[in-house]
């Protein structure tokens, strides 16, 4: 039993005991409309604005900040630009003051040292009816000064002394609000009252969710205490304890589900055993490997080899910075597959990238006599028919392609390995089609060149095994990155001309973002015109590629650049995952302040593929935001994608970092992946420890956990983004 506070603090109630919280208790699934003081109309608003439907939803509707109400000031002590302050005094009178649109309500408020004004612009009718002249109030808010008069707009007001002892908490919660709530007179005080009513009325039904041994190990307070003190903290220490406990629990249940999903998959989903490293692998490795593997590549190949030989289906994420050698790792995996009598496929998000992969992999595997084929939307008629027949007969060892590989007509002889490049560009349903091309699903290797901080990867891909290539091949020169403003444009043009004179090629990239495509397209075309003026024919050849071009035209322009016919490629971010042009050594990014760090890094990775020194020039307006300055400055300081991703996570948040709002992570109620990395690691470690010792959670000490976890799976709640 947990005693939260005693009679001295709640004079009108018996002592409140909370026997623990399992929000899974049936009573907490009661619709919010049945809570005293809510009613149908307010329940509807809370559901529509915040998605709050039940008692448990309200219980987990946490304050987003707190204000300290331990300090009092007098009116005589007021000064301009004070932070939020609290004053005790008497409401002397109220008057309506006409203004251009409607009127405002002004209350004259005084204490023993002087007087000030309280001002309201909305809800004045309700206020006139409910505020009492001559009544003592405490008011809280920010003060403004007009001439010699101080005023406080829309103050937080309470009768003084407080009518209910439970509202004497010195640290007040501030809940998310909206204009709709204000219009409906759902104030902070009212929301706090609902939460208090919930705790008072139904506290006895609350049950603990974590095992005692875990809580003792880390000094966590009980969940009932945590829920009370997150809403009504008595002091900062109790607030910190409540936050720590609730953050941990949120992250812990996420990790528990991810790890459980992984364990179920491993036990139920058998994989093809790759028992041998045979002739093809050894011949390639000993005689045709174009360069010595880095230690990181060797480590990753060993990890994959262990998976492939385990009789369980491999599901592994391979993270590696641009140019780190992920494709070579994939090629070595293809060779293992062939040695064991299996076919492989590689799926790329764009036709351009698929063609690049096809050329590279074909060149690598040709010396050992393996056949690589390319299947995209462009492959038609007889060529397509012959290709599909060869695939079905087993005459094709590796099939490279786009989403065309997902089609039902694509039938493999014996698919053993599927490699997905930049997997976030493919939907779950698409990938599932690939898994069902066999009775037993193929091994899966997911590759990404988008560096993801480890903490974020644990939540986004926690059900995958993760390998990281964290070093670049030897001899690769670091790309020199500089930041220049529009004022230096002529100097930048001069530098580009010097590089072209040395035989190099140049990318010039313009942003293209969904919200303002028309404007962006204009920026691109204006930029193209200025480039062609500065770099005229026939001395210079300029290509242009953007999303509004036909595929054939785009391919022609790309091909001109790849073959070195044009020296400059003006493009939108369509080239972010584009072709590999070793001779391209300069990347100019226009309006660089409009890109996130992850995207800037991806674009920078389009150069630096050859032996020559490469450069990335970040162009920005003269006046940009502080965040933009930090991003561009960070880009000039490091080429490490993982270091950049950590900064990006802090600046932009996990959802933006992933590019497409894979925003389950954003649905966290209280934890913050940026700030709570240590807690996330701890939650994962504890989830692993418990599942290893008791996979079914059937031991006596884990029964409370099992009950809570089953409720999470049943009601989804805050973890509904986990597939």
Describe the model.
- The N terminus and C terminus are likely disordered.
- The chain has 4 domains: 105 residues, no CATH class; 99 residues, Beta Barrel (OB fold (Dihydrolipoamide Acetyltransferase, E2P)), CATH 2.40.50; 154 residues, Rossmann fold (3-Layer(aba) Sandwich); 159 residues, Rossmann fold.
- It is α/β, with parallel strands linked by helices and 723 residues long.
Short description:
With 723 residues, this protein is an alpha/beta fold. It has 24 helices and 24 strands.
Key traits:
7-stranded parallel sheet; 18% strand; globular; disordered N terminus; disordered C terminus; Rossmann fold; 723 residues; alpha/beta; OB fold (Dihydrolipoamide Acetyltransferase, E2P)
The coarse silhouette is: globular
| Strand order, largest beta sheet | 8-9-6-5-4-7-10
Please state the average pLDDT score: 82
Number of strands: 24
Q: Gyration radius, to the nearest Å?
A: 32 Å
Assigned CATH architecture of the largest domain: 3-Layer(aba) Sandwich
Question: Which helices and strands appear, and what pairs or packs with what?
Answer:
Blueprint: E1 2-5, E2 16-18, H1 39-50, H2 55-59, E3 65-68, E4 85-98, E5 103-111, E6 114-120, H3 124-130, E7 136-141, E8 144-146, E9 149-153, E10 156-159, E11 171-174, H4 179-183, H5 188-202, H6 212-218, H7 223-231, H8 236-268, H9 279-288, H10 295-308, E12 315-320, H11 326-339, E13 343-347, H12 351-365, E14 372-375, H13 381-393, E15 398-401, E16 415-421, H14 428-435, E17 443-448, H15 454-460, E18 465-469, E19 480-485, H16 489-501, E20 505-509, H17 517-534, E21 542-545, H18 551-562, E22 568-571, E23 584-589, H19 597-604, E24 615-620, H20 626-637, H21 641-652, H22 654-657, H23 677-693, H24 703-715
Parallel strand pairs: 6-9, 12-17, 12-18, 13-15, 13-16, 14-15, 16-17, 19-24, 20-22, 20-23, 21-22, 23-24
Antiparallel strand pairs: 1-2, 3-11, 4-5, 4-7, 5-6, 7-10, 8-9
Helix pairs in contact: 7-8, 8-23, 9-11, 10-11, 20-21
